[in-house]
Amino acid sequence: IFENRTTSAEDVISKAVSVAAEWKRAQLTEKDPATAASTVTSNCTTTRNLTNHTKVCTDAAWNESRQTAGLGWFFSDQLRPSFHQGSKTEVFVKSPLIAEALAIRQALETARHMVVTNLLVNSDSQTLVRTIQ
Questions:
Q1: Which residues contact 27 (CB under 8 A, 6 or more apart)?
Q2: Which of 38, 75, 114, 115 falls between 20 and 30 A from 104, CA-CA?
Q3: CA geometry: angle at 28 spanning 99 and 104, to 5°?
Q4: How many domains does the chain divide into?
Q5: Of 126, 18, 104, which is closest to residue 55 (Cα–Cα)?
Q6: Can you give the residue range of the structural domain that contains 115?
Q7: Residue 25 CB neighbour total at 10 angstroms
Q8: Is 82 buried (19+), middle (13-18) or exposed (0-12) by CB count in 10 A?
């Protein structure tokens, strides 16, 4: 069923970001108020009180044989579950960890251009999150 089917990394990441934003909008009600104050920087699906903060969730997909990566990110805040998203394809990427780092870098550059001053960065790469912390 999937044979001879080609999809660009940018299309895959764009779809993933779109679906993640849709899922996040469906999760607007928090059952436990104590959970809302927790900080989980390695899991973008965790809801958090974002008073005076903007959150960006990043992800990357890496193609080893082509040495390319698809990067994706979306921004949210207290009032808007997803107000800006983007995706990008990078070439000459040597590992999935580098791909995840590039996604964070791109999100940080985007936040700088948007003049975001208080930013919470989330990534699903626990290895990268631990390294940065």
A1: 45, 47
A2: 38
A3: 15
A4: 1
A5: 104
A6: 54-132
A7: 12
A8: middle
Which segments in the chain show pLDDT lower than 70?
Answer: 1-51
Helices (H), 27-125: 33-36, 96-113
> What CATH number does the domain containing 88 carry?
3.30.420.10
Q: Per the domain annotation, does 92 fall within a domain? A: yes
**Is residue 88 within 8 Å of residue 11, measured between CB atoms?**
no
Tokens of 125: 């790469």
Q: Is 23 inside a domain boundary?
A: no
Tokens standing for 64? Answer: 């080893």
Return the amino acid letter for 81.
Answer: P
Residue of 83, 68, 69, 81 whose CA lies nearest to 29: 81
State how far the Cα of 111 lies from the Cα of 114, in Å rounded to an integer. Answer: 5
Do the domain assignments include residue 76?
yes
- The CA distance from 36 to 47, in Å, is 6
Show the tokens assigned to 115.
Answer: 């003049």
pLDDT digits (tens, 9 = 90+) for 70-94: 999 999 988 888 888 999 999 999 9
Exposure string over 47-73, b if 16+ CB within 10 A, otherwise e: bbebeeebbbbbbbbbeeeeebbbbbb
